[in-house]
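The material for today's practical consists of a large collection of protein records. There is nothing in a record beyond a sequence line and a structure line. As an example, a complete record with its sequence and its structure tokens follows:
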Amino acid sequence: MDTFDEAYARYLEFLSQLDRTCDISEKNVLFRQLTQQLSDLEQRLNVKETSPGQDVTANEDCDLTYWI
């Protein structure tokens, strides 16, 4: 599995290819690839936000004081 940065770089590459091509069928393929990449990136972000073992409700009212 790729890292988020690698997946984002691949998304940007598809986006630049979409800008460079004039062929409608190629644009359709690239658009499908872009939407799939966006879906994958969104899933990765959702997994990072709610990582396993982390109690979200326990952290909602926590005090944001940092001790040095």
